[in-house]
Write a structure and sequence with these properties.
CATH superfamily of one domain in chain B: FAD/NAD(P)-binding domain
Strand content of chain A: 35-45%
Shape of chain B: elongated
CATH superfamily of chain A: Rieske [2Fe-2S] iron-sulphur domain
Helix content of chain A: under 10%
CATH topology of one domain in chain B: FAD/NAD(P)-binding domain
Shape of chain A: globular
Number of helices of chain B: 25
Structural class of chain A: mainly beta
Number of domains of chain A: 1
Distance between the termini of chain B: 54 Å
Order of helices and strands of chain A: EEEEEEEEEE
CATH class of one domain in chain B: Alpha Beta
Bound molecules: flavin-adenine dinucleotide, iron/sulfur cluster
Oligomer: heterodimer
Strand order of the largest sheet of chain A: 2-3-4-8
Strand content of chain B: 15-25%
CATH class of chain A: Mainly Beta
CATH topology of chain A: Rieske Iron-sulfur Protein
CATH architecture of chain A: 3-layer Sandwich
Number of helices of chain A: 0
Structural class of chain B: alpha/beta
Largest interface: A-B, 37 and 30 residues
Radius of gyration of chain B: 31 Å
Strand order of the largest sheet of chain B: 5-2-1-9-21
CATH architecture of one domain in chain B: 3-Layer(bba) Sandwich
Number of strands of chain A: 10
Largest sheet of chain B: 5 strands, parallel
Chain lengths: 111, 813
């Protein structure tokens, strides 16, 4: 069971941009794509822990600002040839509101 | 139902096209491939090293049978296509089976030409084209001693060398008086012949073969003059002919090759052709680089993207004989209208000739030391004006001052543990094994897999050299004009022209118009496009898209490796005051700054700030009168000065004053890359003005202006632009030069490589020789500056762009 937390509205995040949710368990980056899809990922690149929220969003990917690794927003995995993943978190829209769950999706050990 | 694509010919061009197609549209077709040879797809050009025992067949496979399975491609292995029914749209194989197609790709390559002299069909007469030929040669080498190679061209010499490595004694028969006459001039051909003879190869020059004789298999080769030589095996390597038999038979228009248009379609629009079998704009090709370019275009068309045209290729030649370095490209003979630049050192076996017309390279031949071949080739292909470095061009790129790596370029002799890419710590061994194991052909491939040359890029030349060295041949030759990135086929210059001429002010719309292959680009192209927009439309605020800027420029601070930021306020001309220093000290204490550091650009950096602290510290600095130093941007950075005549006993002019004025004029301007200035008060040059993008050296009579210097990884001293007498002139020249750079350089191109690309003469023509043009350039710069000189820190300290600096939500469990 996940507890949904309202974190803000779609307008709070620029298109092709990101915002950060801070929490005691580390930061979560919340992304908005050109098509208004919203994704939440742990704000740490699997490479050297760069803050993904600061990267350039393109397609369904973000480029880490430190060494340009590309991370897939929907799965949190690094785009080949790089390897690794960042945990993803469930997000959903309720109207214009963005709801986030702090319980990471299964599949990536970097939580 | 999927459309059906049938490919005839399982060779290098055909399969490269399929690979490109799978990248663009993996599910568009059901693909079937006829391959007469009973293997997967292999790297034909590496047959020479296989013959020489330097590589095995397994090592040169490009796509094994599993690849076909994995990609759902049916390989009709060992089947020869013998007929095409174009009405019913089906291909008929030699075993009578039929395969239907919606689109057909012919990639049948070439057939070796066999001189039809009596005896040419005897056992032991072979060509040099495929694995079967190599097997035949290796078998003969195991049993016999004497080999005769007919043909002293590239292929013949590679065959001869291979057989010699296999222990045979080899005679090369050549009809002309010099070897490789189509690729080499006489001096180079002589040097080649001498070094091959030293290795034990024998030559019969000017010899015309009359017949081949023998009972069950060859025994000797006889010549028109009545002489003869003994032979256990004869290799015919006298040329290739496009393999057009099948196309001709079914009425597809052929001349020397199958005639295709710029989208690789034959006269039957359902039928495409690529590779050596093709004749395009009256040219046929026998090297892989052009075939790969064709493949790219053809795949693009098959995927129905419909962009990209093949417009022909410029090719170059290398000989793959270990220990012999030879390079040739273009027209190396010349005529009355051309000049020759020649360097020859017989003792050390080095020869270089460059044929020049109107100060542009038409062709080149190199022997012995070919490391600069790629450079000359690039200069030739881009038709670069070489006036500025003509006097040293023969000594190579290392002499230009920009190469930095000079001798390191001898990649062949480097050890496997030698570090190639300093940024990413990639060694030669890593790169070579990635190239061979993952079958990489292009610089982009190597970057993606190893990261080498993907950061600062200064090792690109080395990586390219490694690529050429490892895969041999001409794989690394980049397409004509380099596209911005993989999202598009368009070049920097093309994109800028469209932004300007078609009035584009939105990246998205531009990408749609120019048919970008990705939905919204990538960091590489978006940042470039954004700069081009900002440069073209300074007055249009909305043309600047924050999300298409790298984080540093978006946050107006430099991100550090731990995700914190640095803050560096501007210090005009390197000067400061007690008040400013006090304010900096206070801020450092207030924000608990651990590192306070004096930068190389004469100012003070504060390190380790959290992002949300930025607007707060900026407010404090603003209150003390300080503004952003743009130390984070592709922008005007600093103007370094010395104290000049105000204090220094050698000073000739007020260098500090000029420096401050220059910084007041230029601060805030966005550039293709970072941009640094300096003003020194006398030729002792304490401000190091001769390694800056724009440097002023004061002299008694006025100001010497210097351009294109760089103090980074590749140190480059400036070129002298001109001397002026007043401060006002120095300011105008500087503004004009900056604007020229802003308008013409490619994004992320510093002034040093820019000047080397366009030539100093071009800069002088625009800035020095043409006063009117200089004035206009300067005016355009001043116009743009009106909109740029708002302190970005102030706006943000007062609440702008808050979403950039604050968390959307803070959750405390
Ligand atoms: C020994 C050697 C060294 C070379 N060195 C270099 C070099 O250093 N640099 C360089 O750039 N180039 C080099 N080349 C040239 C390069 O290999 C060719 O340009 C390239 O392979 C041509 O590709 P292609 O696809 O057009 O033809 P191919 O690779 O020859 O492929 C054509 C394929 O089609 C098959 N085929 C033909 N007709 C039919 C049919 N009717 N049905 C079914 N299958 C059919 C053939 O069996 C063949 O496998 C070299 C070539 C050789 C032989
Ligand atoms: S070396 Fe860079 S530092 Fe340097 S070159 Fe390669 S990518 Fe980098
Ligand atoms: S450059 Fe000349 S004027 Fe300036 S400090 Fe040095 S010696 Fe003095």
């Amino acid at each position: 069971m996940s507890d949904w937390i309202e974190i803000g509205t779609l307008n709070d995040i620029p298109q092709l941009g990101a915002r950060v949710v801070t929490s005691d368990n580390g930061n979560i980056a919340v992304f908005r794509t050109a098509e208004d899809k919203v994704f939440a990922i742990k704000d740490e690149c699997p490479h050297k822990q760069g803050p993904l929220s600061q990267g350039i969003v393109h397609g369904d990917r973000v480029a880490c600002p430190l060494h340009d690794w590309k991370i897939q927003l929907d799965t949190g995995t690094a785009v080949a040839p790089d390897e690794g993943c960042a945990a993803t978190y469930p997000v959903k829209m309720e109207g214009n509101k963005i709801m986030l769950s702090l319980k990471p999706n299964e599949g990536c050990p970097n939580q | 139902m999927k459309e059906r694509l049938v490919v005839i010919g399982n060779g290098m061009a055909g399969m490269r096209t399929v690979e490109e197609l799978l990248k663009l549209a993996p599910d568009a077709y059901e693909i079937q491939v006829f391959g007469e040879e009973p293997y997967g797809n292999y790297n034909r050009i590496m047959l020479s090293p296989v013959l020489a025992g330097e590589k095995t067949i397994e090592e040169i496979m490009l796509n094994d049978l599993k690849w076909y399975e994995d990609n759902n491609i049916t390989l009709l292995k060992g089947k020869k296509a013998v007929d095409i029914d174009r009405k019913a749209r089906k291909v008929i194989a030699d075993d009578g089976s039929e395969v239907e197609y919606d689109r057909l790709l012919i990639a049948t390559g070439s057939t070796p030409f066999i001189i039809p002299v009596p005896g040419h069909e005897l056992a032991g007469v072979v060509a040099f084209r495929d694995i079967a030929d190599v097997d035949a040669m290796l078998e003969a080498a195991g049993k016999y001693k004497k080999a005769v190679v007919i043909g002293g061209g590239l292929l013949g010499l590679e065959a001869a060398n291979g057989l010699m490595q296999q222990g045979m004694s080899v005679k090369v028969v050549h009809i002309m008086d010099t070897l490789m006459e189509r690729q080499l001039d006489e001096p180079a051909a002589k040097m080649l012949r001498t070094s091959l003879e030293e290795r034990g190869m024998e030559f019969l020059m000017g010899a015309q073969t009359a017949s081949i004789e023998g009972k069950d298999r060859v025994e000797k080769v006889c010549f028109k003059d009545g002489s003869s030589v003994d032979a256990d095996i004869v290799i015919m390597a006298v040329g290739i002919r496009p393999n057009i038999a099948l196309a001709e038979k079914v009425g597809i228009h052929c001349e020397r090759g199958i005639v295709v248009n710029d989208t690789m379609q034959t006269f039957d629009p359902r039928v495409y052709a690529v590779g050596e079998c093709v004749q395009h704009r009256n040219e046929t090709y026998g090297l892989v680089a052009p075939l790969f370019e064709m493949g790219k275009v053809c795949a693009n068309h098959l995927a129905k993207h419909g962009i990209g045209r093949y417009e022909g290729s410029v090719t170059s030649t290398k000989l793959k004989v270990t220990g012999i370095d030879l390079f040739s490209a273009g027209d190396f003979t010349g005529d009355d209208t051309t000049e020759e630049l020649v360097f020859q050192d017989a003792a050390s076996g080095v020869y270089r000739k460059i044929v020049v017309q109107d100060n542009k390279i038409k062709g080149t031949v190199m022997y012995g030391d070919t490391i600069d071949g790629t450079w000359y080739f690039d200069l030739m292909r881009d038709q670069t004006d070489i006036t500025d470095f003509r006097s040293t061009i023969l000594f190579g790129q290392a002499h230009l001052g920009d190469s930095g790596h000079g001798d390191d370029n001898r990649v062949a002799s480097m050890s496997d543990t030698a570090e190639i890419c300093g940024c990413n710590g990639v060694c030669k061994g890593d790169i070579v094994s990635a190239i061979t194991e993952k079958k990489l052909f292009t610089l982009d491939d190597v970057r993606a897999h190893t990261k080498a040359s993907s950061s600062c890029g200064s090792c690109t030349g080395l990586v390219e050299a490694l690529l050429a060295h490892t895969v041999g041949g001409d794989y690394s030759v980049a397409p004509h004009l380099k596209p911005i990135c993989a999202c598009t086929d368009h070049t920097h210059d093309e994109v800028r022209a469209v932004i300007r001429d078609k009035n584009f002010k939105s990246i998205r719309e531009l990408q749609q118009f120019m048919e970008w292959k990705t939905s919204d680009g990538c960091p590489k192209c978006r940042t470039a496009l954004n700069y081009y927009m900002v440069c073209q439309w300074p007055e249009t605020h909305s043309a600047d898209d924050a999300q298409s800027r790298f984080i540093n420029e978006r946050a107006h601070a430099n991100i550090q490796k731990d995700g914190t930021y640095s803050v560096i306020p501007r210090m005009w001309g390197g000067g400061t005051t007690p008040d400013e220093l006090r304010a900096i000290a206070d801020a450092a204490e207030k924000f608990n700054i651990k590192t306070v550091h004096v930068t190389g650009g004469q100012r003070i950096g504060l390190y380790g700030l959290k992002k949300e602290e930025l607007p707060v510290i900026w407010k404090d600095l603003n209150d003390a009168g300080m503004v952003s130093g743009h130390a984070y941007g592709k922008a005007l950075r600093t103007v370094k000065t010395c104290v000049g005549k105000e204090w220094c006993r050698f000073g000739t002019q007020d260098s500090t004053h000029l420096g401050v004025e220059l910084e007041k004029m230029t601060w805030g301007s966005w550039m293709p890359h970072k941009f640094k200035l300096a003003v020194s008060g006398c030729p002792r040059n304490c401000a190091e003005a001769t390694i800056k993008d724009f440097g002023v050296v004061c002299v008694d009579s006025g100001y010497e202006l210097h351009v294109g210097g760089n103090g980074g990884i590749k140190v480059r001293a400036t070129d002298f632009l001109c001397a002026v007498t007043t401060e006002e002139e120095a300011m105008e020249y500087s503004a004009a030069y900056i604007q020229l750079y802003r308008e013409e350089a490619h994004y992320l191109e510093r002034t040093a490589p820019w000047i080397e690309r366009v030539g100093l003469t071009h800069i002088k023509e625009n800035i020095v020789d043409d006063a009117e043009n200089r004035k206009q350039l300067a005016e355009r710069f001043h116009y743009s500056q009106q909109f740029m000189q708002d302190d970005p820190w102030e706006a943000r300290a007062n609440g702008a762009q808050q979403h950039e600096f604050n968390a959307i939500k803070q959750i405390n469990a």
